[in-house]
Write a structure and sequence with these properties.
With 328 residues, this protein is an alpha/beta fold. It is 48% helix and 16% strand.
Length: 328
Amino acid sequence: MPSVLLLHTNSEYATSLARTLESINTDHSVDVVTRTPISDRLSHLLSHQYDLIQTDEFLGNGVLAYFGSILTGTPLVVSVRGWADYTNAHDDHGWFRELSIRARTRLVLGQTSKVMYISEETKRVFEDEYEVKISTVTPRPVDVERFRTPNSTASTASDEIRLVTVTNLRYEAKYDGVVTILNGLVDLFDEFRNLRYCIAGDGEYAAQLNRFLDSYPHRNRVEYVGYVNDVPALFSESTGFVYVSYLDSLATVVLEAQAAGLPIIGGDAVGVPEAVGDAGLICPPTADGVRNTVGRLLKDSSLRETLAEKSRKKMETYNEQCARRHVD
């Protein structure tokens, strides 16, 4: 029986993958080690006999996996969840930290048997910066059961249409996406008196968003709720999910909204279209694009039902497909 160590920083990725592997009865033995003490991680690396080590980054666990791979002769695979840290996409690394990140990344790449990317966009951007010998694109699983709801398209009032965006306001490129959506909804608020919009997420751009909303013409129909722990409950109260971002490797939140059975509209930028796939509508990542595409959704209840069903059908087998591609 092949034995695999998932030495991951993102525990949700590792546990979702391990759980799905177990559910499809593969002949793999999988250990999950995430943010445990370093001594525990080293113990797993050095005292167990694994056939493969997989890690999901190059900088912390990636370096541990690098040494474990060398000392035990175990092949190493790295799954790249995004490119921002490795390319300084946020422009928040000083020169010394950026130099350290690039050095560690190249060090671990030298011992890596194969690089796995969670999206084609991640592969494209990462390989613009680093030389990679062998690679593949293998999306990551998500916790589908947590987000699945039995009646996710029901409105919160008799005829209310409630759109929602969940994002990370730590990043300017995601804040800009929310502003794009808000600008696109202005005319639709005039046309659809039953339209409401909810924004969830926290970060350093939250204050800037509040200032923007202070002068927004339909402020009374926009709810900014900040950080939300129970996102599945928020999805269950929503009619549709709208997401525009200019910095996403795959947009996992889109997959979570699809797991909740929501109709999806995603902006055509970075890794968002790959997450949406065929189970949603793709719009130009502009205010006009949002207005036109959301307008279609609002005018056509049968379209909302069709997209909701596509979301549910996609996520019924999504994790299994991801797991089998990892096994391959």
